[in-house]
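Help wanted!
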Amino acid sequence: MSTQIDLEELTKIEGHATLRLRVDDGRVEHLEIRSLEGSRYFEGILRGRLYSEASEIATRICGICSCAHCLAAHQAIENALGIVPSAQTHELRRLLNLGESIRSHAAHLYFLALPDYLGVPSTLSIALEQRGAVERAIQLMKLGNDMVRLLAGRDIHPVSVTVGGHLKIPTQEQLTGIRERLEQLRPAAVATAELFNSLPYPELHVKLERFSLYSDSEYALIAGSIRSDEHEFEQRDYGKFVSEYHSPEQTANFVVREGHAYMVGALSRLANSKELLSSDAAALLRAGPVPQGLDNPFLINPAQAIELVQNFDDALAILSNLRPEPEPPPEIWVQAGHGIAAVEAPRGVLWHEYELDDTGHILHANIITPTAQNLRAMEESLAALLPEVVHEGKEAVVAAAEKLIRAYDPCLSCAVHFLNVEWL
Amino acid sequence: MSERQIAVAKKLRVGFYGITGCAGCLESVIFNEDEIVGIFNLVDVQAFPFIKGANSHEDLDVAFMEGLVASPRDLETLKEVRKNARVLVALGTCANTGCIPAYRHYTPLENYEHLIKEKEDDIKDVPPSPIDTHVPVDFAIPGCPPNGKEILEVIKAVAAGKTPRPYTAPVCIECRRKGNYCLLELGKPCLGPITRGGCGAVCPSGGFECWGCRGQTEDANLPAFIELLEQKGFSWDFIKRRLRTFVGQKTPDLEPLRRALEVEKV
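Answered by r_m:
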């Protein structure tokens, strides 16, 4: 018997997508995640604009991870112009990225993923019964947002980051305020990691290479090489790392080597950088299911929760040393160039690439988002999971599939390459 | 209790929707961290697929729509929501002007041809357009992203049975009130003087020039402003691109304005 399941539309994800499944005699015959987003062609829109305009345009790819887009755009442009930002700029940017990670992980874990494990439609709709969890979620989200507001000038689509530096440097007093709140709220981050360590995750094994930024001096978020257990690439070797192909049966795919899906995101970062964790984050990692289940995509959720503690500890470490000095952004010498940068967005590695002409106008732009890279991994994970639940009926299939897709924290608004394909 | 009082006491049925966009406007609703739980108590949130699993799309008093129309599916969703909602609010710049995605109308085709892997005919595309191109809109909240507090004010006003009032003064008013340096005077191409405020001058306060994401004020003197930017050394091409970036198709026809300026100079 053949059943076609159209899960239309997936809720509690960022952006719009549908899952199509065809099941014949208890076997999954066809499986496809489709974006429902219209095409936006950002890379085309960026052509012809000035280097200094790249970020303001590219951040509109995604409101959820606009800071990551802002940082990747600026760093790729700096790379093209041969500018190396100061140590202070690096620290301020790292802090900005940490703020975005804190708010994004908190929002994703509590509002998008947790309802699946509590069996409720929305965390907010159970606000009154689950006051504690909701308040914790909101406090964490607010702190992350306030960090972004302070460092970027605005909570969504940052404005204070500029080519080579910062347009507005926070005062010592403002940074101290953030440090005190981080200290105060740290137990909420730890409680989140404990909660997500204790949830019952479905058993699943999917062999996927896990890529993330890696640096031997810090838990890498905005600088480093690209690494997995098996491979290491420099950012400039991006062309060797990311190869993209389209097939008529699928949406867009991004692969390390043709035909092989790979995973980016919290689980990959933890797998590659576990030696760099703070002692508490490392203890929380050891105490939970992640070390034994690095091949289980459901464990992206507890990995994000452990990262939340790591984000707190990294931000506190930065703030204990940072004494901001006035530092006007450098004079820019416009010249032709080609720049590449990778930044860890909350859901994985984000690539920006720009080619500039000698007047500083963008000749070519290429942007590859984490979700675009994870799409094949999501499909392969579903293909591994669904045969186990298919006999339990349509509802169980739908619930399991949604839970798995949500664990990946996909952001389909920003999966730009997802959009320029021929639909089935 | 009279029937009227009962009607007022009934919670508003509200829906928050998104079509093609970046989800930033819907985030701006949620990023009212201190009020978000209150919103869910004040009104009956029937639909918010971004954060809610079970969503009803029927009989809505107010629907907030984020995003622009860029696919047949967007159009279908928009029409469905319009049909079911008494009041439709265009939330954010994409919904109001098409925002950056609609800038494609000003971009040569060769700029994005390489992005279209298959034949263009196979891509079911709708030219990027603001939602009022397709359905009537009752209220607009501009901004990319919109000001979260302004969204709250609109929700509260509608819940109280009032018509919210749009902000009409330029960004400069709020910017000056904040004691910021004038970025135009510093030589930055700041669109504050011709742009509708209500954002709290958030960009100039962060050191960054206003790009005009909330659209032009009704009394904007565009020719004078264009002349001012030209005097400051910005090229006509740069000015044109900047003015169109966020306001897209809602920008007045710039070429005749510029020609009028040329004539004046002669």
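OP: Thanks! One thing I noticed: The radius of gyration of chain A is 21 Å.
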